[in-house]
Amino acid sequence: MHMFLELFSKKLSLAALVCSFFWIALSSVMLAQTPSPNSILTRSIAFHDPQDQWETSSNEFILRESRPGSPDRSTILQIDLYHEIFNLDQNRDGNRIQYFISGDTVDILFNGSADYTAEQEKQFHLTEERALILKDYYSYLYGLPMKLRDPGTILDPKVEKVLFQDNETWRIRVTYEEEVGGDIWYFYFDPESFALVGYQFFHDEAARDGEYIVLEDLKIINGLSIPQSRSWHTNSDSTFLGKDVIE
Q1: What is the pTM assigned to this prediction?
Q2: pLDDT band at residue 92, thresholds of 50, 70 and 90?
Q3: Inter-residue contact 67 to 93 (CB < 8 Å)
Q4: In which region does residue 203 sit, left (phi positive, over 0), alpha (psi from -120 to 50) or beta (all else)?
Q5: Which residues contact 76 (CB under 8 A, 6 or more apart)?
């Protein structure tokens, strides 16, 4: 009996050792199959900007922006990072608002005129600060995923495979250095093409605030594959906030 127990114990030890090696090998394979965040980002940029043109070309977008309870807005954007040019021409509530940024120079027109009242300036945000905010906003959204290579961007090393809009995706978490921004972002990529299919942000992740954005369809503009439709929803209860469509 003693010899049998000793032999049985040795077999158990051997089995445990084999099992341990198996799980180590399986874990290694699983890790090898999970791409790094840098790899995902590189492949996604290659999908959306295969000719590396975002930083050097002048791109124009004509948008229809719809919001619940409000009339649609028509917006024309020109984004030229290389020449530091950003122009926005928007029809809003029956008025035409234009911001022109070239380097450090900002010009603003309201219904074709640079002369407007203080009340109009306040109501329609006809300020240099507003122009610069819109420049950063639109350049970021329409420059994704390329903008995730900007200085100050921090890619979390952990990559997860999760469902987004009922589809499997790779998810990467992004934060920013303090002087750049304090929000927490998640970006979702198609596991085969590595196209960016959505993203979300939180000011306070524990409070489930912020929004998520669903990207649909693709439009080729100057060789760039740009999502044609962006739908905005709250993180807390998926309330629909609006939709932007490239026309």
Answers
A1: 0.85
A2: confident
A3: no
A4: alpha
A5: 60, 61, 62, 63, 87, 88, 89, 90
Q: Hey, what amino acid is at 48?
A: H
Q: What is the pLDDT of residues 102-115, one digit of tens each?
A: 999 999 999 999 99
Q: Are 244 and 229 in contact (CB under 8 A)?
A: yes
For 11-75, give the secondary structure using H, E and C: HHHHHHHHHHHHHHHHHHHHHHHCCCHHHHHHHHHHHHCCCCCCCCCCEEEEEEEEECCEEEEEE
Q: Where are the beta strands (DSSP E) in the chain?
A: 59-67, 70-80, 85-92, 95-102, 105-110, 153-164, 167-176, 184-189, 196-202, 211-221, 224-234, 240-246
Tokens 């790779």 correspond to 170
